[in-house]
Amino acid sequence: MAGASEEKTEKPTPKKRKQARKDGQVPRTPELGGWLGLLIVSLAMGPLLDHELNALRTMMATSLRSAERPSVSLATTLLGDAGRHMFVSLLVLGSMVLVIGVVSALAQGGFFLSPKLAKPDPKKLDPFKGAKRLLGPHALWEGVKVLGKSSVVAFLAWGAVTSMMPLVGGLLPIHVVLHEVSAEVSRLILTVALAGLVMAAADYAMMRRRIGKQLRMSHSEIKQEHKQAEGDPLVKGAIRARQLAAARNRMIADVATADVLLVNPTHVAVALRYDPDRGAPRVVARGAGAIAARIRSVAAEERVPLVQDVPLARALYRHCQVGHEIPRELWAAVAQVLAFVLSRRNAGQYGGEHRTPRRTDDLPDVLALSRRRRVAGGA
C-alpha cells in the first residue's frame, strides 16, 4: 500500500521507456505530417499551377484549331494529354505528401507495432472511465485545439477573401484574375500550413509532457526494477547454495577414488589421489567440521586408508584447494605417507585408521598461493 500511494517524481528508466514504447505510449501527433504535407503542397502549387495553366492554354488552342476538322483520333489524343497532365500533377503532390508523412513519423519516434493496443480491453468499455476521459484535461486540450485551428483558418481565409474581392468586378483580364487568385490561394495555404505547424508543435509538446508524466516512477518502483535487473538476493543466495551443495556432493563422491585420507584427527580431512601420469598428488576432497566427518564416513565405507597426521593435514587444508596439486614444499612429507599406503595395498591391505609413518612433525614453510604463482610465472 505504501508503494501504491508513493508520489511518482522520478524520470522513467530506459527499461520503462522501452516497455512504454511496446505498449504504444509514444508522444506523437498525427497533425504534424498533415500540416507539413500542406506546406509542401503550398510551395509546389505555384509552379504546378503555372505549368498546368500553360498546358491548359495549349490544349484550348489545339481544341479550337481542331474544331475546323474534328476527328475521333484527335479528341482521343486531347483527352489522353489532359489525363496525363492530371495524373502527373496528382502523382507529384501525392508523393511529396507521402514522403513528408513518413519523415514526420520517423521524427516522432519511428514506426512501431503494439500488439497490446490491438487486443480487446474490457476496461475501455467502463462508462466512468469514458466520462473521465471526455471531461479530463486531455479532452479539454483537444477542444482547445479544434477551436484554435478553426479560428486561425477562418481568420486567414477571411483575410484572403477580402483581398480578392476587387478581382471579382470583371474589369481585369481573365488570365490576370487567374494568376492573382492562384497566387493568393497559394499564400493562404502557406500561411495556414505555417500556423498549423506551430499548433502541431504545441500539440507534440503537450503529448510529450502528458506521457512523460504518466511514465514517472516512484523511488520504490526504481528500486524494484533495479532488484529485478540485478537479481533478487534471496534467489541468488538460493542458487549459490544449490551450486555449493552440488559441488560438495561431487567432492564427497570423489572420496572413493582417493588413495589416502589425511585427518587431524576429527576436525580436518584432506583426501589425496596420486596418478603418476599427471605428476604430483592432487586434492580430491577437503573439509572441516561436519564436512570432514562426512568425508571420513565415506572413506571408511570405500575402504580408503585414514592416516592421522596433524601438521600435514593442517598444512594441506590451509594451502590447497580441491583439484589442485599439493605444494612443492610438501612433496617429501606426502611421499612418505603414500609409500606407506601403497605398500599396504600391494600386500592386499585396504582401509583402516593409521598413525603417520613420518618420524618428525616438522614441515617446511609453504609459500602462499599468490606467491607460488608469481614464482612459477617468473620461472
UniProtKB/TrEMBL annotation:
Chain intervals for the UniProt region annotation (Disordered): 1-28
InterPro entries on file: T3SS_substrate_exporter, T3SS_substrate_exporter_C
Organism: Nocardioides humi
Spans traversing the lipid bilayer: 87-113, 152-176, 188-207
Positions with biased composition (Basic and acidic residues): 1-13
Protein name: Flagellar biosynthesis protein FlhB
Keywords: Cell projection, Cilium, Flagellum, Membrane, Transmembrane, Transmembrane helix
Species lineage: Bacteria, Bacillati, Actinomycetota, Actinomycetes, Propionibacteriales
Domain of life: Bacteria
